[in-house]
């Protein structure tokens, strides 16, 4: 586990405090030196609002959902009707367009919602039914879709680039940036339950160790490892165990290995974590507070081992009944507890490439997740979008139900969900085909949900003649139909700006268009 109380951290906090004190005197030059000379009253007000968010001393929470395999934005909020392609001289029968009746309008919104029902999931005979309208209608005012062009169609590389903006800021991930900004006082600021490139750390080794992700493979069982002795039978008292730990640490330091590598940064961190770090985690009783499992004498006899469930466990098991068999439900339950209990400021989750079945033997994850679209695009995209929308909806409702503090804000008011996908899917199909496979494509878009972003907004757009997305100006939000080059850094910057992260000196583009004004 990463620890949070070393001397370096204290110095960082001191420097941060000094920079806050200096903010007032620096305000004038900053406001008159905006990118591109922008100094309109509206822009100055927005900039001041973002700065105030950074300085209010309150954390914000980032939830990354890794849509592994390529979630296609034109199979969801930016779907294209066949008649729209025909109207501009395109051939809808050769493109990934929908029958008009399958694409629903969302009242007062630029978004679309797909509705369809089939009796197969690729080669798997199972019913797939999706109706995205309730979700989009419910969250449209907190939803922003930014169109994108990536730089890789390799799964792992593209996954990581969706988190780093293709190395936009010294290779840091979004999660690391948020942990650096808000996570200093949190036990485990950055918890990562995702897979492959979505679980990788960034390339900036100069960050404090607590910024890097703590990888969690089994969310339902992971909390049981957060105490070195609780849950074991017939162990000595904690005082005796602590004394044994002191002796062990002393002997390790006197060993040949300890003396040889006593100045190695990795060993220093390890010793720090074993000493004060482990004790700090155990004192918070996270082994219980994060535990969703029930006290079941025949399956999980917690009380027999001196353990207990989280006070929220029963409610979470009702919301996520497949938490043990559906990895994403288990991840979402733990994500809520990590945020509610102020353990983490950044949590990452998402499906894997592995098949998952519910307790009733129903598919909850097809092979290859979104990438099963190679075999059958339309039904797989419908299934996976429905799956992730359903999980996100439940998680948001939980966050809405919990107060952040006495100010009247909920946890959701200070949270942002970024549905990070690797890449898009190819747009062509054999003429007239109703069942078709797709390949990887750089062209796509991202869904962002938060009360902090400019809601009910599409940044960019779709050319109905080709169904390809086009770009936008990240500062103003103006659509740019001729812009087809990579904009990974724009989206990276936009998320951090909405999160109130201080990006001074980063060289990131001005992404004011993402922020709610």
Overview of this structure, please?
With 517 residues, the protein is α/β, with parallel strands linked by helices. It contains 14 helices and 18 strands. It has helices spanning 7-32, 41-55, 82-87, 133-139, 155-164, 174-182, 238-254, 256-260, 265-283, 286-289, 313-319, 327-340, 377-400, 488-498; strands at 61-67, 103-105, 112-118, 128-131, 143-149, 190-192, 214-215, 346-349, 356-357, 363-365, 415-421, 424-425, 440-441, 443-449, 457-459, 461-463, 468-472, 479-480. An eight-stranded mixed beta sheet has the order 7-6-8-1-11-14-5-15, sandwiched between helices. The protein has a three-stranded antiparallel beta sheet with strand order 2-3-4. The protein has a three-stranded antiparallel beta sheet with strand order 16-17-18, with no helix packed on it. A hairpin with a 6-residue loop joins strand 2 (103-105) and strand 3. Helix 12 (327-340) runs parallel beside helix 13 (377-400). The longest helix has 26 residues, at 7-32. The radius of gyration is 24 Å and the shape is globular.
The radius of gyration is: 24 Å
**Unreliable segments (pLDDT under 50, ≥5 consecutive)?**
1-54
Secondary structure class reads alpha/beta
Helix content: 25-40%
How many helical stretches?
14
| Average pLDDT figure | 90
Number of strands: 18
β-sheet strand percentage: 5-15%
How are the strands of the largest sheet arranged?
A: 7-6-8-1-11-14-5-15
* Main sheet attributes: strand count, strand direction, barrel closure: 8 strands, mixed
């Amino acid at each position: 586990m990463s620890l949070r109380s070393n001397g370096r951290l204290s110095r960082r906090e001191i420097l941060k405090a000094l920079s806050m004190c200096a903010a007032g005197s620096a305000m004038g030059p900053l406001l008159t030196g905006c990118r591109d000379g922008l100094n309109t009253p509206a822009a100055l007000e927005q900039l001041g609002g973002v700065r105030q968010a950074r300085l209010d001393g309150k954390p914000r929470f980032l939830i990354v959902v890794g849509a592994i395999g390529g979630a296609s934005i034109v199979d969801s909020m930016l779907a294209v009707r066949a008649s729209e392609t025909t109207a501009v001289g395109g051939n809808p029968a050769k493109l990934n367009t929908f029958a008009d009746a399958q694409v629903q309008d969302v009242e007062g919104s630029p978004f679309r919602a797909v509705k369809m029902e089939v009796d197969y999931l690729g080669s798997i005979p199972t019913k797939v039914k999706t109706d995205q309208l309730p979700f989009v209608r419910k969250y449209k005012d907190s939803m922003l879709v930014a169109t994108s062009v990536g730089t890789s169609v390799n799964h792992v590389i593209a996954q990581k680039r969706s988190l780093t903006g293709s190395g936009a800021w010294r290779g840091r991930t979004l999660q690391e940036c948020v942990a650096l900004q808000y996570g200093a006082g949190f036990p485990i600021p950055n918890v990562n339950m995702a897979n492959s490139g979505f679980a990788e750390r960034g390339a900036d080794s100069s960050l404090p160790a607590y910024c890097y992700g703590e990888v969690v493979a089994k969310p339902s069982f992971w909390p049981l490892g957060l105490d070195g002795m609780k849950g074991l039978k017939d162990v000595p008292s904690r005082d005796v165990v602590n004394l044994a730990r002191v002796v062990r640490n002393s002997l390790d330091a006197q060993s040949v290995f300890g003396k040889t590598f006593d100045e190695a940064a990795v060993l220093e961190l390890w010793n720090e974590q074993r000493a004060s770090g482990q004790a700090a985690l155990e004192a918070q009783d996270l082994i219980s507070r994060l535990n969703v499992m029930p006290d079941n004498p025949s399956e999980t006899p917690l009380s027999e081992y001196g353990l207990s469930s989280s006070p929220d466990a029963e409610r979470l098991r009702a919301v996520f009944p497949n938490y043990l068999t559906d990895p994403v439900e288990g991840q979402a339950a733990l994500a809520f507890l990590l945020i509610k209990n102020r353990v983490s400021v950044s949590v990452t989750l998402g499906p894997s490439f592995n098949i998952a079945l519910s307790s009733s033997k129903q598919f909850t994850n097809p092979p290859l997740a979104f990438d099963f679209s190679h075999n059958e695009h339309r039904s797989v995209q419908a299934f996976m979008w429905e799956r992730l929308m359903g999980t996100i909806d439940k998680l948001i409702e939980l966050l809405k139900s919990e107060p952040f503090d006495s100010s009247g804000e909920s946890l959701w008011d200070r949270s942002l969900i970024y549905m990070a996908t690797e890449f898009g899917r190819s747009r062509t199909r054999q003429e007239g085909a109703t069942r078709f496979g797709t390949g990887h494509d750089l062209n796509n878009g991202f869904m962002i949900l938060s009360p902090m972003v400019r809601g009910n907004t599409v940044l960019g757009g779709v050319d109905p003649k080709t169904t390809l997305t086009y770009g936008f100006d990240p500062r103003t939000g103006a659509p740019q139909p001729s812009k087809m080059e990579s904009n990974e850094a724009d989206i990276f910057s936009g998320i951090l700006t909405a999160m109130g992260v201080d990006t001074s000196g980063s060289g990131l583009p001005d992404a004011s268009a993402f922020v709610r004004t």
